């Protein structure tokens, strides 16, 4: 990533561009670089902001999806951001959903890709062989349709993270919080436009999860990305960006 991480008042984030506000929310094992192609595509016409979710900083006793939603609320108020488009992958989508249920007045529209919140095959309810590089490599490759998307750099980063005892405890705590927090009874409250951009071959949040989101969210559209796993904005960024651009054009030009 060529963008500088800004640190202000306990928040860490990057931002680029001006215009309508896109807030990108990363997943549990997500890096800011996951959104690189999205930033490049939209920074000339939009104000793109990526807060770093404090998965490794919040008190572990309060760590969970709702705590990250409260953090997002504080961040948006700190940045004086309103009527934002939230774009969330995996855990980031779940945080976006929780936040939107509580603070729909802040959100103009919502984009979910591989979001948790209903059902997921968690990246790791545990890491029984976290010392094995090959095991972690296999786990990372499971995320994608094309295993080659799991670059050595990406696998190295995940391997380092899960072999840090403090971090892996937090990852497992966060994953369990997300699995326990099923939102099926709350989704009807979200009446703003929602775009679901989903990998047809997602094994973490499979296609039936996207279909259930589509049924339960009253103002949603469902877009499939073929030959794609859990992170369409990484595996097929051109297709992801095309769907996102069409959605933004439709909802922002109203």
UniProtKB/TrEMBL annotation:
InterPro entries: AB_hydrolase_1, AB_hydrolase_fold. It comes from the Bacteria. This is Alpha/beta hydrolase. Coiled coil: none annotated. Keywords: Hydrolase. One of its GO terms (molecular function) is hydrolase activity. Residues 22-242 form the AB hydrolase-1 domain.
């Amino acid at each position: 990533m060529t963008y500088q991480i800004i640190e202000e008042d306990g928040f860490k984030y990057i931002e680029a561009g001006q215009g309508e506000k896109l807030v990108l929310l990363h997943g549990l094992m997500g890096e800011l670089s996951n959104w690189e192609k999205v930033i490049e595509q939209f920074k000339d016409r939009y104000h793109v902001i990526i807060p770093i979710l404090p998965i490794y900083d919040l008190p572990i006793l309060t760590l969970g999806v709702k705590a990250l939603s409260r953090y997002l609320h504080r961040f948006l108020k700190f940045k004086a951001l309103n009527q934002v488009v939230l774009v969330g992958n995996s855990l980031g989508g779940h945080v976006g959903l929780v936040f939107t249920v509580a603070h729909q007045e802040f959100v103009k529209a919502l984009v979910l890709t591989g979001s948790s919140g209903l059902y997921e095959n968690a990246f790791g309810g545990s890491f029984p062989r976290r010392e094995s590089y090959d095991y972690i490599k296999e786990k990372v490759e499971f995320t994608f349709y094309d295993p080659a998307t799991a670059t050595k750099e990406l696998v190295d980063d995940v391997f380092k993270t899960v072999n840090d005892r403090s971090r892996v405890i937090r990852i497992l705590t966060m994953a369990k919080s997300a699995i326990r927090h099923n939102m099926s009874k709350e989704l009807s409250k979200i009446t703003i436009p929602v775009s679901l951009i989903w990998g047809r071959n997602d094994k973490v949040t499979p296609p039936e999860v996207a279909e259930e989101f589509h049924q339960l969210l009253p103002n949603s559209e469902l877009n499939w990305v073929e030959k794609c796993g859990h992170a369409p904005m990484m595996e097929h960024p051109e297709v992801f960006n095309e769907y996102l651009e069409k959605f933004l054009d439709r909802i922002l030009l109203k």
